[in-house]
């Protein structure tokens, strides 16, 4: 059935749907904060502070002006954000914030200015021992197991005479940051080392130093503000195309017609009949390379896929036609030319800032260093900073490897759309089935089980590559995520072009992820499929923007500016989706994409925002009188849902489902603090008990709650500035029985319950010159 019915943009009903945040918690100590733990920790912490106090008397002269950096190791049960205020209560002083960041999974980083700070903390510990302290400080003592002086661990022999990057701590204090920078630069001058400040991201203090001696590294590492010294990564372009011969239709733009625009961050694009007419302007050699050092081969192939992807493959992979592009040389695949991480970041930032009109950028390159389990890389943080400050979306390749290698630095960028590869249709006996994971494509997860790549597209099989163009319009085949990525970039650029209104990266990402599905060859019996395929292979662009009669798609973009949550009663779930036995059925797909608050100095808590969505039938609504006898003082909302049965949780569905039914369910578990989430459930696969439990609940509701981590909450309490959180939630309800009424019923329910809604506004299809 053709999809011709527009998806709906739906607004929350202002005050009616707003749900003011309410305080929670208990007055009791947590179970792990026992008297024995508090007693033992008290003694251990006092002894540690006494040892630290001695260190103040024997500091190196260049450290005397700086605070001492201390690492606090937390109890394994105290890592949740709810206990962080207790830690701060013990370590901070009035109007003085000593806690400055996170250095590991259980490690808090804080500063001590001198023995006065130590005495104040010891006095608080004494009050705990004497049973005269507040609950906050009791839990604080229970939460901290160890204190130790932070030291910068470096392997000097491995680092000497190489290009390095030095990271200084962010003191959250402008004066201390300036002082520590001055001390580092002065030490570099004394050592005859050229130290240069690099522009990575807000809160990420990185400096470049070239070929220092072992002794210089040793002395720099003694600066108390230095938290790491590492080798500077390099980023490379890899491609080895094979020639092929086929008819490729030449496409030309129509003069005066507006086309999608894509920024290419690569090695340049050769001038040719096929590509030059689609170049929006002269190529920009951002990297300042000599012409002899430029090899445009990789960039030309990448751009040919972005412009001619469907035409080259002679199939409707994306549903996108050609587009305009702007080529920016930020790297080279010429042998012997290497671009360092700080240089690449500088070039990308400059290219993006030069072209504020370009909202989608293709970045098909990477390193050979795999991501960490817990910490986000400096490169990823820098890419996020560029995207957030310039309001753009970067489509980033997952990288190439063998034996299911993990994604490399930069591919874990939270705001980027990371792309893996699946096999195109093969022509060789050794090729895999179309849609299977390309053997060279790197897989997830990112840090903190982040789902990366989010999507996949065709990038090559075992023997059969995807079709590309190289210089002088020579036709080749090639393999790599470098060539699956521009298909997604093209989709994103066409979506930006087709959607009318202000650019919103969360909407573009959400549409692509929401309309991604797993190829039929994917085995969903394994637990690894999201790690390999992300959320799947996106559909064509027209299917993203329209429904048929058996499905109903709503796009919600709630405004969290006022710090409120949302409680949407009378959520429009069609009554037609009740079977002959009175049970709900239907396939519900929910995608949540957030532009979160990010803090590079917070380690594994880099992502500071989480959005939680629950949908399901409810037993009713209670109306309470605020302030009345018996009503909790923490209540701030009169209307309160009675028992929402959230359909997006896995425990409601049978584990003994037929394979066809299992294919329809995607339940995300343990993925809090992720900016991209997706759920898909088939209500007919609920357990009999769950079906019976909600059989008589005909009213549906949706709750949307935002959560903020401790570092951002501290800033809010200090300056009162509420961060605006952009979020797009897309919900599709589909009737697998094809009654042909779901779309119209969804529209009717929106109208009945006074939801303001409108068709998503799109441009007409773009046109090419006649004869093409």
TrEMBL record:
Signal peptide location: none
**Looking at the record's lineage, which domain of life comes first?**
Bacteria
User: Which Gene Ontology terms describe the biological processes this protein takes part in?
Assistant: proteolysis
Membrane-spanning parts: none
Which residues belong to any copy of the Peptidase S8/S53 domain? 260-536
Short name of one Pfam family: Peptidase_S8
* SUPFAM superfamilies, per database record: Subtilisin-like
Q: Which Gene Ontology molecular-function terms are recorded?
A: serine-type endopeptidase activity
Name recorded for this polypeptide: Peptidase S8/S53 domain-containing protein
């Amino acid at each position: 059935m053709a999809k011709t019915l527009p998806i709906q943009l739906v607004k929350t009903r202002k005050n009616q749907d707003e749900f003011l945040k309410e305080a929670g918690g208990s007055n009791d100590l947590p179970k792990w904060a026992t008297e024995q733990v508090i007693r033992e920790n008290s003694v251990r912490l006092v002894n540690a502070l006494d040892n630290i106090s001695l260190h103040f008397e024997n500091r190196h002269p260049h450290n005397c002006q700086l605070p001492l950096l201390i690492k606090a190791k937390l109890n394994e049960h105290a890592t949740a954000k709810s206990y962080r205020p207790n830690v701060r209560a013990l370590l901070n002083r009035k109007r003085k914030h000593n806690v400055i960041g996170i250095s590991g999974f259980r490690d808090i980083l804080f500063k001590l200015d001198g023995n006065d700070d130590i005495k104040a903390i010891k006095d608080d510990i004494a009050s705990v021992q004497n049973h005269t302290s507040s609950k906050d400080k009791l839990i604080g003592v229970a939460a901290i197991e160890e204190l130790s002086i932070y030291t910068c661990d470096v392997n000097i022999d491995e680092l000497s005479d190489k290009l390095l990057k030095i990271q200084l701590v962010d003191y959250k204090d402008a004066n201390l940051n300036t002082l520590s920078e001055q001390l580092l630069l002065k030490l570099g001058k004394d050592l005859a080392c050229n130290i240069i400040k690099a522009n990575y991201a807000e809160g990420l203090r990185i400096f470049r130093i070239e070929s220092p001696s072992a002794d210089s590294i040793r002395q720099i590492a003694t600066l108390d503000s230095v938290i790491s010294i590492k080798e500077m990564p390099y980023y490379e372009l890899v491609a080895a195309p094979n020639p092929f011969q086929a008819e490729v239709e030449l496409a030309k733009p129509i003069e005066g017609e507006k086309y999608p625009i894509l920024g290419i961050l690569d090695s340049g694009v050769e001038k040719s009949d096929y590509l030059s007419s689609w170049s929006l302007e002269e190529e920009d050699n951002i990297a300042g390379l000599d012409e002899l050092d430029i090899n445009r081969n990789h960039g030309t192939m990448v751009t040919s896929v972005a412009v001619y992807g469907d035409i080259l493959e002679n199939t409707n992979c994306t549903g996108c036609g050609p587009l305009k592009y702007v080529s920016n040389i930020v790297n080279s695949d010429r042998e012997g030319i290497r671009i360092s991480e700080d240089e690449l970041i500088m070039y990308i930032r400059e290219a993006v800032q030069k072209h504020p009109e370009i909202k989608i950028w293709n970045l098909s390159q990477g390193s050979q260093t795999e991501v960490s389990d817990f910490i986000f890389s400096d490169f990823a943080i820098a890419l996020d900073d560029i995207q957030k400050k310039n309001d753009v979306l970067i489509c980033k390749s997952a990288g190439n490897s063998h034996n299911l290698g993990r994604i490399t630095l930069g591919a874990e960028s939270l705001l980027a759309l990371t792309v893996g590869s699946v096999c195109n249709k093969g022509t060789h006996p050794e090729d895999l089935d179309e849609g299977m994971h390309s053997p060279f494509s790197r897989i997830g997860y990112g840090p903190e089980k982040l789902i990366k790549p989010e999507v996949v597209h065709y990038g090559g099989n075992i023997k059969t590559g995807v079709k590309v163009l190289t210089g002088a319009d020579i036709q080749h085949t090639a393999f790599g995520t470098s060539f699956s990525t521009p298909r997604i970039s093209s989709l994103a650029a066409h979506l930006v072009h087709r959607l009318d209104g202000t650019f919103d990266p969360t909407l573009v990402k959400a549409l692509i992820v929401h309309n991604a599905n797993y190829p039929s060859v994917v085995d969903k019996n394994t637990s690894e499929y999201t790690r390999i395929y992300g959320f799947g292979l996106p559909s064509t662009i027209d299917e993203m923007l329209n429904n048929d009669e058996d499905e109903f798609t709503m796009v919600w973009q709630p405004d969290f500016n006022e710090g409120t949550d949302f409680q949407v009663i009378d959520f429009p779930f069609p009554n037609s989706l009740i079977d002959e036995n009175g049970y709900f059925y239907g396939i519900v797909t929910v995608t949540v994409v957030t532009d979160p608050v990010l803090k590079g100095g917070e380690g594994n808590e880099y992502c500071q925002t989480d959005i939680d969505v629950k949908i399901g039938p409810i037993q009713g609504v209670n109306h309470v009188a605020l302030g009345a006898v018996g009503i909790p003082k923490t209540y701030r909302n009169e209307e309160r849902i009675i028992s929402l049965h959230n359909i997006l949780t896995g425990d409601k569905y049978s584990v003994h489902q037929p394979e066809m039914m299992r294919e329809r369910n995607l339940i995300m578990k343990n993925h809090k603090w992720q900016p991209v989430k997706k759920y898909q459930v088939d209500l007919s696969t609920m357990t009999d008990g769950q079906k019976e439990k909600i059989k008589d609940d005909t009213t549906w509701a949706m709750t949307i709650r935002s959560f903020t981590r401790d570092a951002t909450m501290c800033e809010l309490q200090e300056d009162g500035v509420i961060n605006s959180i952009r979020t797009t939630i897309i919900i599709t309800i589909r009737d697998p029985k094809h009654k042909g009424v779901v779309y119209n019923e969804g529209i009717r329910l929106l109208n009945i319950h006074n939801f303001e809604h409108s068709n998503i506004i799109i441009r007409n299809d773009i046109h090419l010159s006649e004869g093409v």
